[in-house]
Design goal:
The chain is mainly α. 73% of the residues lie in helices and 0% in strands. The chain has 9 helices and no strands. Helix 5 runs parallel beside helix 7.
Length: 182
């Protein structure tokens, strides 16, 4: 089986919901191809889906999959291919999932800068999704009290990401439309 076929097989396992099987294939692939970020990214993606779909606690209340390992593999893939917006978006999204909000915000800002640098790459969808998730996290952490200091710290960031996610190049550009008199 070629390397491409191996990656395709693992990706197909993800779409069928066999996340653990995909993780095994990506793990073996990464051992055979340690300089290819696709194996690390694929493993982390499959692991994150497994955790989201089936939970992460075993019968004894312990983590089945180490969340730090998931984040580390996303980070590794992203650092191996720093111009790949999907790798960076996956890493930043995982950080949000694992409630590492300041780190996630930093990575999403890097994603925005990468999108600005690579003119043929649109990262707006990732920023919009980040905004939505960030608001949900803030609301849960603050019991919907948006006057809470944590909320006040991250709501402006979520609003910025949502505006960028709508395709505006900046908050200032969006404000021009809001402040226009008709």
């Amino acid at each position: 089986m070629t390397d491409e076929e191996t990656i395709t097989q693992a990706a197909q396992m993800i779409t069928k919901g066999d996340f653990m099987g995909a993780m095994d294939i990506f793990d073996a692939y990464s051992k055979d191809h340690p300089s290819d970020p696709a194996g690390f990214h694929g493993w982390a993606e499959a692991a994150l889906f497994e955790v989201q779909e089936n939970g992460n606690l075993d019968d004894k209340g312990n983590d089945r999959i180490n969340e730090g390992q998931i984040a580390a593999y996303f980070r590794k893939a992203s650092s191996m291919d720093p111009k790949n917006p999907d790798y960076l978006a996956s890493y930043a999204g995982a950080l949000l999932t694992f409630d590492r909000i300041p780190m996630a915000v930093r990575e999403f800002r890097k994603l925005k800068a990468l999108g600005d640098e690579l003119e043929d790459v649109d990262v707006s969808f990732h920023l919009y999704e980040a905004a939505k998730t960030l608001i949900e996290l803030v609301d849960m952490k603050t019991n919907y009290d948006r006057s809470n200091p944590n909320a006040r710290q991250f709501i402006p960031v979520a609003l910025e990401f949502s505006i960028l996610g709508l395709g505006f190049s900046s908050v200032d550009e969006a404000l021009e439309y809001l402040l226009t008199e008709e």
